[in-house]
Amino acid sequence: MNATADRLYARRRLRNGVVLALSGAATLFGLFWLVWILWTTLSRGMAAFGPHLFTAMTPPPGQEEGGLLNALAGSLIMCLLAVAMATPVGIAAGTWLAEYANRRALGETVRFVNDILLSAPSIVLGLFVYTLVVAPMGGFSGLSGAIALGFIVLPVVVRTTDEMLRLVPAQMREAALSLGIPRWKVDVQILWRAAMPGIVTGVLLALARISGETAPLLFTALNNQYWSTDLGKPMASVPVVIFQFAMSPFEYWNQLAWAGAFVVTMFVLAIGLLARWLLLRNRMSHD
Fold first, then answer.
1. Domain locations in the chain as residue ranges
2. What is the 3-state secondary structure (H, E, C) of the chain?
3. Contact at 8 Å (CB) between 249 and 38?
4. Rounded distance, CA 250 to CA 247, Å?
5. What pLDDT sits at residue 286?
6. Where does the sequence pass through the membrane (predicted)?
7. Architecture (CATH level 2) of domain 53-286
8. Mind listing the pLDDT tens digit for each residue in 60-75?
């Protein structure tokens, strides 16, 4: 009996060791490529990085001087406008799901549709906005680019708000309602305040995601070589400039593409660190 148990135990230990070894090898394999990509982006991007990126416009073909000022401004405008449009709608929808439609068939249906939108390819969203906005307007515009990016932000904010509000203890709702506080005030002044760190983290992660999106902007905002803050006209953006300059035969354009990739990578890294700091701060305040 003991011999049989020992054999079973040895077999389980062997299987456990094999699985752990394979898991570790898979992790190292993925990390190797990730580090290689980051190192290539940082090394080549740093070589082309300089003050001219923030003071000069994108150069025309053949010119050896230029920067990314108009592209950086266009990306900033469209990303902030997308967040401004999608965040209120996403918070309201997430609140409805968590507080008024939780465990109901309609709420589960909306969650399912939101998950589909969350995983939808960005190029499909860009094509949808092209049909909905660009074609009727008769041209590309920064506004249509912001709308396309807003469709990417929206499901992230809805999902985050829904999850964060459902994590708020039910005792807080019951205590507030027992005092005669209206339901909308409970949502706004108590539940939102309790879930705000998580909601803000979701908004920041959505901002980090759209900062590098190229496909939807190709269908909506297109590009503009010159300085433009007119939302009714084509607008430059860093991802589209990277896409165009990386495929060009001009060496200086290739260097600007690497510099743009470096700027986007640093921005995403900063947003990610800020989001993690907010989550850590929220956990420490609850401990």
1. 2-47, 53-286
2. CHHHHHHHHHHHHHHHHHHHHHHHHHHHHHHHHHHHHHHHHHHHHHHCCCHHHHCCCCCCCCCCCCCCHHHHHHHHHHHHHHHHHHHHHHHHHHHHHHHCCCCCHHHHHHHHHHHHHHHCCHHHHHHHHHHHHHHHHCCCCHHHHHHHHHHHHHHHHHHHHHHHHHHCCHHHHHHHHHCCCCHHHHHHHHHHHHHHHHHHHHHHHHHHHHCCCCHHHHHHCCCCCCCCCCCCCCCCCHHHHHHHHHCCCCHHHHHHHHHHHHHHHHHHHHHHHHHHHHHHHHHHHHC
3. no
4. 9
5. 61
6. 17-39, 67-91, 112-133, 139-158, 190-210, 256-279
7. Orthogonal Bundle (1.10)
8. 887 888 899 999 999 9
Provide the pLDDT confidence category of residue 278 given band limits of 50, 70 and 90: confident
φ, ψ dihedrals at 55, nearest 5°? -125, -15
Predicted pLDDT at 285:
67
Q: Residue 63 CB: number of other CB atoms within 10 A?
A: 11
φ, ψ (nearest 5 deg) of residue 211 = -65, -20
pTM, whole model, 2 decimals? 0.89
CB 260 within 8 A of CB 241: yes
What's the average model confidence in pLDDT over 158-180? 91
Distances (CA, A) of 202 to 38, 67, 94: 24, 32, 12
* Length reported for the chain: 287
Asked whether 144 and 134 are in contact (CB, 8 A), the reply is yes
- Residue 136 structure tokens: 């009727």
Closest CA to 160 of 214, 205, 218: 205
